[in-house]
């Protein structure tokens, strides 16, 4: 199966559809390229489903994981724009930073950000593996539960 079909097939197999991204509401862009490196602006868990509010206990981990997964879908949609629509150009993911609106003492921040990390591996295979930081914070834009940013690199066109 050609690589482009395998990425499309992986998305379809998981019943995943890339969202239409809304335009930034401030002075920034969804992505910035420097050569073959793509810096993706943070994407929040506000979208098709709004994952909002502070994660407080182990009972919130599954909801947080789903929120991070939604952030990952938003990031892949922005990455597709950066690749002129051709996700087969993705060579790999370098770095993921994940932020979770977490109550004091919520120590499952890494388990929440696994939602985005796991998605990248499901979609891109071994090229989706990455270095990562997962941080708990007191507040995120629009009361989002999760925000994730990423850096990818591309094959030459």
TrEMBL record:
Q: Which residues form the Endoribonuclease L-PSP/chorismate mutase-like domain?
A: 9-144
| Top-rank taxon | Bacteria
Q: What is this protein called?
A: Enamine deaminase RidA (YjgF/YER057c/UK114 family)
This protein's species is: Ottowia thiooxydans
The organism's taxonomy opens as: Bacteria, Pseudomonadati, Pseudomonadota, Betaproteobacteria, Burkholderiales
């Amino acid at each position: 199966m050609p690589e482009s079909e395998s990425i499309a097939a992986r998305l379809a197999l998981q019943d995943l559809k890339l969202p239409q991204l809304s335009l930034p509401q401030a002075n920034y862009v969804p992505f910035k390229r420097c050569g073959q490196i793509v810096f993706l602006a943070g994407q929040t868990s506000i979208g098709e489903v709004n994952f909002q509010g502070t994660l407080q206990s182990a009972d919130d981990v599954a909801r947080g994981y789903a929120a991070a997964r939604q952030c990952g879908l938003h990031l892949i949609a922005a990455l597709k724009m950066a690749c002129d629509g051709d996700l087969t150009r993705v060579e790999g993911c370098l770095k993921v930073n994940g932020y979770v609106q977490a109550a004091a003492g919520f120590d499952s921040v890494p388990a929440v950000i696994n939602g985005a990390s796991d998605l990248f591996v499901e979609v891109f295979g071994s090229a989706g593996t990455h270095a990562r930081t997962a941080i708990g914070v007191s507040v995120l834009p629009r009361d989002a539960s999760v925000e994730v940013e990423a850096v990818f690199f591309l094959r030459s066109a």
